[in-house]
Amino acid sequence: MKSKISALVLAALMVVVAAEVPNLAAEVPNVAAEVRRANDPRMNAHFIAAELRRCPCWIEFRQDETEIRAGILRIYTAINAFDTESMRIGLKLYLADEPLTTDPRIEFRKGATVYALLRVIFEVPAMGATGLHNFGSWGAPSIGANLDVQWPFKIRTDGSLLLDGIHKRYFGVPYDGAAEFEEFVVRFPRRKMGPE
Predict the structure, then answer these.
(1) Parent domain of 152
(2) Are strands 142-143 and 146-147 parallel, antiparallel or unpaired?
(3) Rounded to whole angstroms, what are the CA distances from 183 to 103, 118, 134, 165?
(4) Within a domain: 11
(5) CA distances, 95 to each of 15, 50, 86 (Å)
């Protein structure tokens, strides 16, 4: 009887706590601003890596799961507010994480997360970028030799980003997100958007 009461009390507490916990994706911009104020690149990098670890992977959600995709974009947008050096260190920390399993899907998800993030933090063209190296082939749409570098994002008429791409296949060399980051640093300006 005592264990049944304890279980009921615990269940009731869980309901209360769940109701009190705010939407974490909505809180990220506020926390990111506080971390940036400390002006410590190592702290910034650890925050970036932690946010990427907890960020859902966009390839796992249907196009019509717009709330989840918008939450992912909010996390990417908050990360975009950090300086380039903090981001470089944060990406290296995230990509160097040792998975707790030998499941290759973990590395694939990490790559997909970085791939999408880079398209938020840099103003990459939808079509027409020439001379880009192949850091991995995520199946982005193309017209002839012109690859849609912005994919999986689209620019809305108001200039905001929309995460609406659907991942169908991956082929080619293993994705090298750190190398793509370095090429984007040289080739493209940072996207001017702050936390929403």
Answers:
(1) 22-187
(2) antiparallel
(3) 29, 11, 11, 23
(4) no
(5) 35, 11, 14
Element of type H or E holding 69: helix 66-80
In a domain, 8, yes or no: no
Does residue 171 belong to any structural domain of this protein? yes
Q: What is the mean pLDDT of the chain?
A: 78
8 A C-beta contact, residue 59 and residue 110: no
Regions of the chain short of the pLDDT cut 50: 1-26, 194-196
Number of domains in the chain: 1
Gap between the Cα atoms of 144 and 43, Å rounded: 44
Q: Using CA atoms, how far apart are residues 79 and 190, in angstroms rounded to an integer?
A: 12
Q: Which two tokens stand for residue 48?
A: 């970036």
- Position 96 in a domain: yes
C-beta separation of 81 from 44 below 8 A:
no
